[in-house]
């Protein structure tokens, strides 16, 4: 019998995994407006932690200097309070979806480092103070590492080197001492050089007393993801605990594209064969088994999916518009075999 995410009698991910970690999803404010919709009933039933997919990014909340648009972020925070959900703040500093004014001084020239650092302080302090005590975890900086290892050469980095990152963490801690402060990035599970850069960078931050509490592993995976490399890289990062015993890992943007790395947009849409579907289920089971192991070591307490269901996933539009089914909950909120299989781990 088909089960749906919102059904009273179907299993709920956040309940099944409650002894081990919170389970969450990226949502948009339109999903949380009407409590009688399938979106709302599903998100409320299945998840206990949420991230705003786009509406709390720098260009959304601070498109011009001194002009702040907190309406949607405020709605998200009220929703969290009303329904007793933990909330992630995504994201304070990012090279993408960040307006150019940040990098230009009052004369229209490229900002000097001290000028930019003051802006980082103002931006981070304003947002974090506003939501003091209401945001569980902040993705303080997002994607600051280069794909092949080393630091990302963004406008932030070109102007201030690593100082913008350190200032962002210090300002965030100053304004909300209780919030968990995270550095968030992708491909940490699939690129050894990138994972090694993360290790060295976080180690340096800890040794310099920069207030960092954890690493966000986005985990935009694929059926091709090498699970051994994933485990090895994550376990390497967990060794940072020798420098900070309470350091946490969070899975922040989980999904698993059905399209292979070699797939070209012109190859057309993939058809989901039984072989693909079985591989998808097996990989999610392997993954959740690993998450449980990490949780038992006290390393992982949060797993967030990047989207509420397959139909709402960003992967239907990336890198080109095509159907994708990367989540445990299908279109129309059907619970997929992979959903049942991960729940059976408990
Ligand atoms: O809101 C506009 C709409 O007004 C316009 O008509 C439409 C036309 O393209 O665009 C809409 O904005 C889009 C926005 O999503 C909201 O749907 C942007 O073009 C599109 O670029 C944007 O994509 C988002 C992407 O971040 C931006 O880089 C994805 O939804 C979002 O899932 C994705 O999330 C990122 C994380 O923040 C960081 N990690 C990677 C992850 C996936 O890329």
Gist?
The chain has 346 residues and is of the alpha/beta class. 36% of the residues lie in helices and 16% in strands.
Q: Care to describe what's here?
A:
- 36% of the residues lie in helices and 16% in strands.
- The protein is globular, with a radius of gyration of 20 Å.
- The protein has helices spanning 13-16, 38-46, 58-61, 71-83, 113-130, 155-160, 163-175, 192-207, 227-238, 274-296, 337-343; strands spanning 22-27, 49-52, 86-94, 137-142, 180-185, 214-217, 220-222, 248-257, 300-305.
- It contains 11 helices and 9 strands.
- Strands 1-2-3-4-5-6-8-9 form an 8-stranded parallel beta barrel, surrounded by 4 helices.
- Helix 5 packs parallel to helix 7 (163-175) and helix 10 runs parallel beside helix 11 (337-343).
- The mean pLDDT is 97.
- The protein is an alpha/beta fold and 346 residues long.
Q: Which helices and strands occur, and which strands form pairs?
A:
Elements: H1 13-16, E1 22-27, H2 38-46, E2 49-52, H3 58-61, H4 71-83, E3 86-94, H5 113-130, E4 137-142, H6 155-160, H7 163-175, E5 180-185, H8 192-207, E6 214-217, E7 220-222, H9 227-238, E8 248-257, H10 274-296, E9 300-305, H11 337-343
Parallel strand pairs: 1-2, 1-9, 2-3, 3-4, 4-5, 5-6, 6-8, 7-8, 8-9
Bound molecules: ligand G3I.
Secondary-structure element string: HEHEHHEHEHHEHEEHEHEH
Low-confidence stretches: none
Determine the strand fraction and express it as a percent band: 15-25%
Strand order of the largest sheet: 1-2-3-4-5-6-8-9
